[in-house]
Amino acid sequence: MLLEQQAVLLLVGILAGIACTVVNIASLISYPALLSMGLPPVVANATNTVSLVFTGFGATLGSRPELEGQRSRVIRFGAINAIGGAVGAVTLIVTSPDVFQFMVPILVAGASVLLLLQPRINRMAAGPVSSDCDAGDHFSLLSMSGMFAVSVYTGYFGAAGGILAVALLGVVIDEPLVRINAIKNATNILANSTASVIFIIAGSVHYGAALPLAAGFLLGGGIGPLLARKISRGLLRSLAGISGLLFAAKLGVEGYG
């Protein structure tokens, strides 16, 4: 990969890392960038997932105040994410690349719609403040199964997985949205990490692209929480959502035409 392309991926990673912590849309920025540089869909997805691990580390470091007192939740939900991420990655590896290529326009379009609907999803997810870490948590087989399904999706593709995770965590946890989002950032590390191990073993990662993108994700994920109160989330969400729909349409025309 050319040095100029790596520089672009570094900048893309910074932007996507910031966007991930603000409106949970990293993959809608980084995945198209990888495709535009000629990476096959499965390789682009695997490379993106490996790089996303570093967004989680950056975002978690930047969200330490919101994570205070939530260790037990991070461990509990992290375990579900770790297993689900591995299952999703294995599913991607063992199925035909043609299946993933067929699904990508649908997944990108769905992720873009979820992004545009995120304010409504956030209102549904936000719960009352709880004074005790586990007081008011509402665990059920259905909610845990839902979180597992989201983590499988994250391991398989991942775009908008953060939005779904925030919505489900909001059903289970009685906490302000900012603390719920911090838990999502911390636990998504494990979903992406286990998926990354699978992709690395399978030889599906383009390291020349992954390294600069990961560096950008780490930087963007770290400064994202600091900029969250200053960035116009509505504008960023609208631009990314509309761009995602246009990109999905382009992929659909190329793949289904």
Automatic annotation (TrEMBL):
It is found in: Cell membrane. The chain crosses the membrane at residues 7-30, 42-62, 74-93, 99-117, 148-173, 193-223, 235-253. Pfam families: TauE (PF01925). Keywords: Cell membrane, Membrane, Transmembrane, Transmembrane helix, Transport. Its main location: membrane. InterPro entries: TM_pro_TauE-like, TSUP. It is a multi-pass membrane protein. Belongs to the 4-toluene sulfonate uptake permease (TSUP) (TC 2.A.102) family. This is Probable membrane transporter protein.
